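Supplementary Text 2. Reproducibility record for the structural model of the 351-residue chain.

All settings were left at their defaults, and a single model was retained for analysis rather than an ensemble. We include the record here because the model underlies the residue-level annotations in Supplementary Table 4.
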Amino acid sequence: MAASDTMRAVRIAEHGGPEVLEPTEVPVPAPRRGEVLVQVSAVALNNTDLWTREGSYGRPGDPEALSGWRGPVDFPRIQGADVAGRVAAVGPGVDAALTGRRVVVDPAIYDAEGPDANPVGLMGSERDGGYAEYVTAPAERVHDVTESPLTDEQLATLPTAYGTALGMIERGRLRKGETALISGASGGVGLALVQLARARGAKVLAVSSGSKTGPVREAGAHEVIDRASAVPLAEQLRAAAPEGIDVALDVVAGDLVGEGLPLLREGGRWVVAGALGGYDVTFDVRRLYLHNAQVIGSSMHTPTHFGLLMDLARGAEIRPVIAATYPLEQAARAQEQLARRDHVGKIVLRP
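Retained model, structure tokens:
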């Protein structure tokens, strides 16, 4: 257990700007039956941290409503979905041999027990997360990565960005030799998609802009298409993939869906896991049904996907890029940098 009964944490008590992130001292949580207590070594930031803080998810029937991604947030809430650390203590019914092991936490709260369960909640949103010195998690969601050559910071980047990316790739059934289009390729999920799609043996076309195209190419993209170019995007895509695209892995949405759907090959799949370019989408539905195409929504990952990701982490088959590291107390500054979107890679807090 912790040397003291309190810990440093950063939490939000309401929706708002970075100013609502409040450094504070709170009791160290006690692991309940079936849970472990993890001492947090590193916690990575995600867009969901910004959107949860701002309450910008909307609700069914009311897209402008202030809301977390699954409804109202139970304040005060400690943010932070992506935790790497060590098991400090175990609750009743948990194997004590886990104590001291280096772990990554699967942040998803699932709707069922099985390997293909859907995520319906998230650590840092529906339960307290890793913007703290300690966090509790169900023992079955804690993955032993003691042997991984990746650093704690690199491990912390994996759960949401790489989990979301692998979920998209699996749901889109991307196979070796297929052509993948990746939008928003310099962001956390985008770079993860580039690395994972390349590792799977796909031909990777990535959409990025300006100064970020170099790092995207380094991450494994075969071709990088500059969104800021004067040449229309669809024209650039057609030139880069004259045979068409098998799977689009899209975190931007907006106009890209309507522009890009006609570029899908027969039986192509358009997988959407974000709306950075806007949630209001228009497309020609004939391009969908006449070509047996599919538009697939993808939110996070299943327990099976996360297990595959941890295997990749143990073998260091992916190499996450760290853009910046901040101490816990500077969570607001870290979120401000994330919101500016002028970085490549992941931003990490070190409690």
